[in-house]
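Q: I have 365 residues here and want to know how they pack in 3D. Can you give me a structure?
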Amino acid sequence: MLGPSLNVAHLAVATSGAAVMIALGFLPRPSRSTLLWSSVFVIAMASAYGSIAAEEYDSVPLWLVSMAVFLPAPLVVWSGLRALRGVRRTYVWVAPVVAVIAASVLLATVGSGPGFHVVARTVVLICALSNVLVLRELMRRPSGARGVGLPLIVASAMWIVLGVVGAIASVLGLTQNYAMLTQSNAVAIIVYLICALASLLLLTREEDRPQRTRGAETFAARWTDRLRRAAVGGERTWSVLDLRLDDVDQLRAAAGETGFDRIAERFDRAVREAFPAEADLASPTPGRMLVLLARTPASIRACVRRLSDDLAVVDLDAPLLVQLSVTVGMARVEQVGYELDALLADAEADIALAESDGAEPVSQY
């Protein structure tokens, strides 16, 4: 067994992790992914209490069950990552099935001498290899967004290495190192919980991003209705603007996901301040804003210049001390018509033309 010090450390990390994940992850952003990730720390807490009870009553079977309960935890993390990605099948049932099988195998072979060590290490290895699924899911993320998962990537890789080393040691008959390897696995679990908490809390921020998609659907319906009414009234001053931060990939890579979110928030705020209150705004993705308004080209040009000047001022509190710039595409109903899709496509084409020509953000119209 682990000993009082490791048991107490395991319990402290698991309990505080459960409290933090629930308070800062699940409660502010309730979803399938945050619920699953919170359950990881609850399971770890139950495992820690079981280990302490096993130490107190000198019960090896109870300790084995306590360990078997937590070993499939990476599968729960994996299910949460799939839920975050929007996959319908998260395979939540796999983790409890693996836990029951692992506990049954360990209890059936306990006391069988050296053979038990091999079986135990094989079980640990199989559960450790489940981290491959976590790594695969994290690597699906865009290259600029993988930074938030880095602690979890490192911890998962470490767990795999320890599982392989333990299995090799058992196969080679190095049973005298069993206690040391068991304690090293316990330390790995503690490190894993800390790293998982850091990454999963950052990943919960992505729960807000599906709301942008839903918001995009809402603005499309709203704008279509406004343009239809403008067409009936013969109003020809309406325009659609597509505003995009320049060098988004470079900003995300340099500032990290959290830092880029702050930059995108500043951009959103600057757009709202630069355009009149009657302008209808939408933000389909971070670093991009769409504007629908009824103003003359000269008035729109003044708003864009005001936005450009605001972004050019270096924000000393920003994660990167750089001047931001924006590329603007504009489509006017008197040239394109009142169909929203056509206006958005024309504004996007205007951006592509400006980027190919190297034009300044306010010089293409």
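Q: Anything worth noting?
A: The beta strands are 238-245, 280-282, 288-294, 326-332. Confidence is low (pLDDT under 50) at residues 210-214, 360-365.
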